[in-house]
Recover the amino acids of this structure.
């Protein structure tokens, strides 16, 4: 005790900064979030953004139309690279989705109060990213209208899917993930839709929000079951989200191609997914908090915390890159060693170097508090990381497939304009859905915000704990 | 008042409004102590202390989720066993037909899917939703229950309910307003 008394008082921890700017009550958070949907005119930036997003969506439409008319030959895929952009973009999008579930489920279980003001739009991001991801395997089928052949259903041909294939595991993992994310998101929306129903002046809006709210009235009995169900969903989503990118990594690691057949893939893919996802959450949150005037809710502390998560997952990913090279050497396997050497010095070395710059070096800037607390700094880092995560999948897919075992079966790969059109087009799909979402639904969970402001019953308590 | 008692009470019940959660929690304790049973509280966000004050029974959702998860998992495994061993056996590189490690992933996903869907559907059904109409919506100020006001309702169907006495009782609990709820 005596020594303890001599110690100077500890400096105030940054964690004691409140997660919501002071001065808010349950009433003001309700108004501030619902006003942007119900009261304000459609802002000009929204119209502009939506127009751009919709134009990109039309690029998608054009690319897919051409694809349907001509077949997958319009893409750059051929032997030996049969997967190409489709799998790269699939993994990129599905990875982005993971941050939404991490924020909504895992941070809820860890009682991280700061998740409250970002979970809703992060979950929406998950849904839209999964929708974009789902496009690629289906379009890559060649006959996408027969996609339901992937599902086990009784059919006149008496055929059943091959359950020993990681591709079928993927169907189960991704469709479960999409379904669970959608219901989790919707259940979270129900009390907020009731708020919109009760405060909307427009009759049509009242009826539509009322239908969505299922007649929610905030009964204590209902909340009692609701909270239990929500917590259980969070508990179920946590292993689910970890399983999804693990299964995605099985698409590669179950195969015997050099550079793919590695036990490090599942954890390294999951970390990469969270890394890319937080980058996307930041890319969405930083403009959103300015555009809607929500700096009180999405504070610098939120941005800094997300920066820290990115730094941590970025380091895991970087460790993964180093271990890939180390084990290629340590395995003493000719093909693995050649693959690693080819990645670094071969025809695609520029991609690998760019990858190391984007994903390995750039996030080191996040060690500095100045960068973590600067919205512009974080925005730039997030952009670079998003590019880096795409490059990572490019390097994994293309370097291994273009040069596997026998030089006789080697061949180059390059995406065509239709590959790029489809990829950029899915960004249009994503942004269009996101712009519609922020205009018609509350992008921050209103009822959960009420619980963390003073005046809310649990308010003071949570602010202290977090 | 007619001498023959209408089986249905004239009103749905009485609604007391409170400006703060603390006032509601205190009132809920009093109402529960006074022996009222058909009581419900309405709050803009979940407040655990209110559920405790009303002494609500344990939620049945976890049991439903457990059953849903088990059925999902068993269903997923059985589907694979049945299709890969019985109706459509395929020899893939000489692997055994019952290659159970390969069946783990779909089984796991089906477990989660079954559990998650039963959590959501179970919660909605236990709560009696969707229910577009409910008498509490007839009180104009109830619109604030989804914003920043806290309400307590004692149903007229409660054996202890008495229009005047219950109203006096609720007013005595620091309610800022007590209103009748029309059917």
């Amino acid at each position: 005790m005596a020594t303890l008394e001599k110690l100077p008082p500890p400096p105030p921890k940054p964690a004691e900064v409140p997660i919501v700017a002071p001065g808010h009550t349950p009433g003001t958070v309700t108004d501030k979030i619902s006003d942007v949907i119900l009261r304000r005119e459609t802002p000009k930036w929204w119209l502009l953004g939506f127009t751009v997003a919709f134009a990109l969506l039309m690029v998608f439409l054009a690319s897919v139309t051409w694809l349907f008319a001509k077949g997958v030959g319009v893409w750059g895929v051929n032997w030996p690279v049969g997967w190409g952009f489709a799998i790269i973009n699939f993994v990129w999008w599905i990875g982005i989705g993971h941050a939404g579930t991490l924020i909504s489920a895992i941070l809820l279980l860890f009682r991280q109060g700061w998740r409250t003001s970002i979970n809703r739009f992060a979950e929406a991001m998950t849904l839209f990213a999964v929708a974009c991801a789902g496009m690629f395997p289906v379009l890559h089928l060649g006959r996408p209208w027969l996609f339901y052949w992937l599902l086990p259903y009784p059919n006149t041909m008496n055929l059943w899917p091959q359950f020993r294939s990681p591709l079928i595991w993927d169907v189960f993992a991704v469709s479960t993930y999409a379904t669970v994310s959608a219901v989790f998101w919707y259940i979270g929306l129900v009390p907020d839709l009731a708020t919109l129903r009760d405060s909307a002046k427009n009759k049509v809006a009242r009826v539509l929000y009322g239908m969505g709210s299922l007649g929610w009235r905030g009964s204590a009995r209902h909340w009692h079951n609701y909270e239990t169900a929500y917590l259980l969903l969070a508990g179920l989503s946590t292993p689910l989200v970890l399983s999804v990118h693990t299964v995605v990594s099985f698409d590669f690691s179950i195969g015997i191609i050099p550079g793919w057949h590695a036990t490090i893939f599942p954890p390294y893919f999951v970390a990469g997914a969270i890394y890319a996802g937080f980058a996307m959450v930041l890319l969405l949150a930083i403009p959103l908090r300015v555009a809607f005037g929500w700096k009180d809710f999405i504070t610098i502390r939120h941005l800094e915390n997300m920066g820290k998560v990115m730094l941590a997952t970025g380091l895991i990913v970087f460790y993964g890159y180093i271990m890939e090279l180390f084990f290629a050497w340590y395995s003493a396997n000719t093909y693995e060693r050649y693959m690693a050497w080819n990645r670094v010095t071969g025809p695609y070395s520029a991609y690998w170097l760019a990858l190391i710059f984007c994903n390995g070096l750039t996030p080191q800037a996040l060690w500095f508090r100045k960068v973590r607390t600067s919205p512009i700094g974080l925005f730039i880092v997030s952009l670079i990381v998003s590019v880096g995560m795409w490059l990572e999948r490019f390097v994994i897919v293309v370097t291994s497939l273009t040069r596997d075992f026998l030089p006789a079966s080697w061949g180059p790969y390059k995406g065509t304009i239709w590959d790029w059109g489809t990829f950029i087009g899915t960004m249009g799909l994503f942004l269009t859905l996101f712009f519609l979402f922020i205009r018609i639904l509350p992008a921050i969970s209103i009822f959960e915000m009420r619980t963390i402001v003073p005046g809310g019953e649990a308010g003071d308590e949570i602010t202290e704990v977090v | 008042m007619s001498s023959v008692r209408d089986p249905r009470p004239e009103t749905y019940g009485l609604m007391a409004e409170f400006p703060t959660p603390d006032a509601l929690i205190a009132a809920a304790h009093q109402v529960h102590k006074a022996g009222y049973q058909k009581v419900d509280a309405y709050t803009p966000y979940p407040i655990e202390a209110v559920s405790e004050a009303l002494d609500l029974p344990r939620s049945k959702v976890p049991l439903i989720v457990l059953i849903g998860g088990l059925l999902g998992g068993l269903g997923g495994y059985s589907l694979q066993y049945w299709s890969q061993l019985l109706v459509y056996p395929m020899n893939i590189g000489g692997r055994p037909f019952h290659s159970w490690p390969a069946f783990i992933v779909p089984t796991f996903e089906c477990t989660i899917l079954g559990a998650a869907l039963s959590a959501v559907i179970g919660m909605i059904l236990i709560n009696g939703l969707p229910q577009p109409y409910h008498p509490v919506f007839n009180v104009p100020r109830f619109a604030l229950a989804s914003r920043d006001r806290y309400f307590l309702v004692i149903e007229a169907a409660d054996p202890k309910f008495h229009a005047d006495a219950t109203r006096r009782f609720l007013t005595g609990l620091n309610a800022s307003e007590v209103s009748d709820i029309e059917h």
